[in-house]
Amino acid sequence: MKVLIIGSGNMGKTYAKSFLASRFIYAHDLYILDKNREHTATIPEIPSANIHYQAGNFIGQADIIILAVKPQDFAALAQQIKPYILPEQLILSIMAGIKMETITHLLGTRKIIRSMPNLPAQVGMGTTVFTSSPEIDKKELFIIQNLINTTGKSVYVEDENMIDAATAISGSGPAYVYYFMDAMIKAGIKMGFTPSQAELLVNQTFMGAAHLHNQSQLSCEQWIDRVASKGGTTEAAIKVFNATAVNTEIEAALFAALQLAKELGS
């Protein structure tokens, strides 16, 4: 099976390295198309003959084509690669906001998988939500999911509109976590910890809490109850969160992200 990745920025590079590290795809079956030579120079495992800087007949040799370019660059790219696209090729898009209908219109092909990965894919801990056009059969979907899962875990959705919701939840989600972590680190420094001590405390707390949650059947609310004993310090903090409606504000922020994702895709 041959895979062509178009665009070798952060996510394109992440996919290439994940495929190779998992041995799901071997280097001689992996191709890169990117106009930026600096990007491709950082993937030395791929044979130089498999790295291209402009569209050509090699595009038709790929079984799967991954679109990993910026959404605003796709229209121009589509004009360049459309003459080489074949009906049987699978097109996997990781472009934010570009709908399957648009990809079909610009490339003239119907075998489309649209996905929304997130940044932790760079360390094999990513979350990807994906959907597909009706022309993709179960075997092809299984192959695509195996490819995606080399970067972490995935969730398949029938409704393409859920990709926008995934953008708001998991796509943007790491930034929300970093925002909360940053606030805790700064509070820790004000309390007297050194910056390195505060960062260690917060980083380990987030990793430990997530791992503990993943290893149990308890909900987040149940874990909060276990940590927050009555009249204790945790309860004092939770009361402040509740009084200032932090949970409501978080929900509002996520819906703002969802609304923008919808607007970008329209």
Describe the structure.
With 266 residues, the protein is an alpha/beta fold. The chain has 2 domains: 3-158, NAD(P)-binding Rossmann-like Domain (Rossmann fold), CATH 3.40.50.720; 173-265, ProC C-terminal domain-like (ProC C-terminal domain-like fold, Orthogonal Bundle), CATH 1.10.3730.10. The protein is built from 11 helices and 8 strands. It has an 8-stranded mixed β-sheet, sandwiched between helices. Strand 5, helix 4 (100-107) and strand 6 form a beta-alpha-beta unit. Helix 6 (162-171) crosses helix 11 and helix 7 crosses helix 8. The protein is elongated. The protein starts with a strand and ends with a helix. The model has no long low-confidence stretch (mean pLDDT 94).
Give the tags.
13% strand; ProC C-terminal domain-like fold; alpha/beta; Rossmann fold; 266 residues
Question: How many E strands?
Answer: 8
Gross morphology is: elongated
Number of structurally distinct domains: 2
Q: Please report which band the strand proportion falls in: under 5%, 5-15%, 15-25%, 25-35%, 35-45% or over 45%.
A: 5-15%
Q: Output the CATH topology of the largest domain.
A: Rossmann fold
Class inferred from helices and paired strands: alpha/beta
Radius of gyration equals 22 Å
Major sheet attributes = 8 strands, mixed
CATH architecture of the largest domain: 3-Layer(aba) Sandwich
Low-confidence stretches: none
CATH class division of the largest domain: Alpha Beta
SSE string, helix = H, strand = E? Answer: EHEHEEHEHEEHEHHHHHH
Figure out the total of helices. 11
Distance between the termini: 34 Å
What helical percentage do the residues reach? 40-55%
